[in-house]
Automatic annotation (TrEMBL):
GO CC entries: cell outer membrane; outer membrane-bounded periplasmic space
Biological processes, Gene Ontology terms: lipopolysaccharide transport
GO molecular-function term, one example from the UniProt record: lipopolysaccharide binding
Organism for this UniProt entry: Caenibius tardaugens NBRC 16725
Keyword Transport found: yes
Composition-biased stretches (Gly residues): 157-170
Protein name: Organic solvent tolerance-like N-terminal domain-containing protein
C-alpha cells in the first residue's frame, strides 16, 4: 500500500526585511524583525478622552482617541480595557482594544477590528479585516498574531468573524528589487 504524503510547500521570499513562509494550510508566517526585541517590560503610557478606573474589577476603561505607548510600540483605538493586578503596585496583564485598532512600531503597522495585547505571553493578536504593512509591502487576512519575543508574525485568512472580503484567504503585495 502506497501512502500519499501531504507535502507542505514553503516559499521563502525576502523583501524589505520580510521572510515569508507559505504553507498548504493557508496560513502565512511573516518574520518581521521590527517587532523582535521589543521591550515588553517598559512602562505603559496612555491617553484618552475619557478614563474610567474600575477598581473592584481591576481594570481601566479608556475611550475616545485612545493612544497607548510602550517604548517604540504604539496602539491606537476607539476604546480599550486594561486589565491589571494590584499587589502593592499596578501591573498590566492585558489590553483589549476595539474600534479601528492600529499598532505601529518603526516602519511597520498593523490594523484590525479588535486587538489583544497579552503581556504575560508577550503576544499581540488582531482580528477582523487585518492589514500588516511595512513600506510598500502588505499582508491582509482575518487574524494576525505577533510574537514580541521572536518577531514572528502569523496571518490567517480564516480567523475573523464573517470571513472578510478575501474568501478566507491571505492576500498580499511585495516589492521586488528593481
Amino acid at each position: 500500500m502506497t501512502m500519499k504524503r501531504h507535502a507542505f510547500t514553503s516559499l521563502r521570499y525576502a523583501a524589505a526585511g520580510f521572510v515569508l513562509t507559505l504553507t498548504a494550510m493557508g496560513g502565512v508566517q511573516l518574520y518581521a524583525q521590527a517587532l523582535k526585541g521589543h521591550n515588553t517590560k517598559a512602562p505603559v503610557n496612555f491617553a484618552a478622552d475619557r478614563i474610567e478606573l474600575q477598581d473592584r474589577q481591576d481594570r481601566v476603561v479608556l475611550s475616545g482617541n485612545v493612544d497607548i505607548t510602550q517604548g517604540e510600540l504604539r496602539l491606537k483605538a476607539a476604546r480599550t480595557t486594561v486589565d491589571y493586578t494590584n499587589a502593592g503596585s499596578l501591573t498590566v496583564q492585558r489590553i483589549t482594544a476595539t474600534g479601528g485598532v492600529n499598532v505601529t512600531r518603526g516602519t511597520e503597522s498593523a490594523q484590525g477590528n479588535v486587538g489583544i495585547y497579552d503581556f504575560n505571553n508577550r503576544v499581540i493578536t488582531l482580528v477582523g479585516n487585518v492589514a500588516l504593512r511595512r513600506g510598500g509591502d502588505t499582508l491582509n487576512g482575518q487574524r494576525l498574531t505577533m510574537d514580541l519575543d521572536t518577531g514572528v508574525s502569523s496571518v490567517d485568512g480564516r480567523g475573523g468573524a464573517g470571513g472578510g472580503t478575501n474568501g478566507g484567504r491571505v492576500t498580499g503585495t511585495f516589492s521586488v528589487p528593481g
